[in-house]
What does this fold into?
Amino acid sequence: MKGIITVVGKDQVGIIANVCTLLAKSNVNILDISQTIVQGYFNMMMIVDVSKSNLSFEDLVNSLDAAGENMGINVKLQHEDIFNSMHRI
It folds into this structure.
């Protein structure tokens, strides 16, 4: 199963490292990643494979939320199908 992770917030050292470390510890594979910094704001989108995660999807969502809160940024994980439905034009 694939998920979409979005990360948005004021740029700071360690955002990618913290998110990727959490994903690695949770056995989540990053399939694709894109990140930009615009006027000091960090924006990253990842497509991940959560099918072999050692956490439930809900626990992974909560872990990413908590990591984002600790860094003062917004980190969200959604099922790929829900993300696609919400962003269909």
In short: The first strand starts at residue 2 and ends at 10. The mean pLDDT is 94.
